[in-house]
Structures are given as C-alpha cells and as structure tokens.
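## Example pair
The file below holds two records. Each record gives the amino-acid sequence first, followed by its structure token line.
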Amino acid sequence: MANLEQTLAGIAKAIVESPDQVRVEREEDERAITLTLTVSPDDMGMVIGRHGRIAKAIRAVIKAASAGNGKKVNVEIR
C-alpha cells in the first residue's frame, strides 16, 4: 500500500507557494482513514481551486492510491 500521507503531501507541495508549511495528519479507526491537510492561509485558494476542482482532484487521486486497503479514505483541507 502506498504511503498516503507522503502522496498527499507531495501533491500539495507541488502546487503551493510555501511547501515548507504543508502538514498532513492521519487519524485512523476501524472503518476509515482521515487525512487532514494543513497549508498556509495564503495557499488555501491554490489547494481548493475554482469551485473546489483541485480539492476534488486531490481527493480522487488519494482515493485511487488507497484502493485495496479496505477502508474509506477522507481528505480534509484546513
């Protein structure tokens, strides 16, 4: 299984202007994994994108990367 935290951090660092402020936290229970992405307030627009398109694309990539692990993966952006 791919390291989801590193994958999410890599995607975020590639699109923000302050990659050193990108943080990913993982919370896991028996049914789901929640990845919380934290970026600089100035970079929020870049991560979310117009009408949430970039955020939706990031969630789709992480969902594909987590295929086969048997748990639902949620991505929250703060």
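Second record, same layout:
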Amino acid sequence: MSEVEELPSKQVQDFLQNHPDSVLVDVRTQEEWDIIGKPDGDSINMTTYFISYQKGPDRILNENFEQDFLNLNIEKNKKILFLCRSGIRSLKAAMIIEKCGYKTLNISDGFEGSMVINEPGWKANKLPCKEK
C-alpha cells in the first residue's frame, strides 16, 4: 500500500494556501506536453518541473527518473505534488521519490481527468495551463 497522499486537482489551490512552498512535478511525456499542454504552476506561485517518468511513444520507463528528480536539488521540507495524465504514472513516480525521503502527493485525477475515480482533472477544473 502506498504512503503517498492522494489530492484531487480541485483541491490544489486550497492545499497551496496551507503549503505555499509546494512544488509541482509533471511526469508525462514530451509528446503529451507538446500536444495537450502543460500545467502553469508558476501562475499560482508553485514552482513547476517537467520530468518524464516514461519516454517516447512506446512509453519506455525512464531509468534515470529518480536521478533526474534528485538533480533538481529540491529541499526535503517542501511538499512535492506529482501530476500525469490520469494519476497512475504520477502515483508510481511519487512512490519512488517518497522512498528518497520527500513528502509526496499524487494529483489523483491528473491533467486530463480520471475515469477510475470519476474526477475531471487539472485542465477541466480550470487550473492554469500553458497550451501547446
């Protein structure tokens, strides 16, 4: 069982009120960022990073994911929110980084929404986005 806390995107702004130094990490692929768009965490004062958990159209696991994250040198006292398309890859990524001593949260409905939990996602909840 995961120790990673789940946070629906509709609660992100309320969460930031209590944790203003939180960081957002989008773990989708370059293709997804280029075609679908990106979250604009900076516009809600949340530093945002983009590191692919999987790469390319075949979604090959990024074997350097953990090191790519550690290379960001994010302070361990910050809460790290992970985001993918629908909340599955971001949960896996959050679990990896949680084991490195960070407090992680998974945006459970992702950028585009999750049919599994029937939540609309970051984009549909009108959180800020940078279009392709």
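Notes on the second record: The beta strands are 5-7, 23-26, 38-39, 47-50, 54-55, 60-61, 79-83, 103-107, 129-130. The helical segments are 12-18, 30-36, 65-70, 88-98, 121-124.
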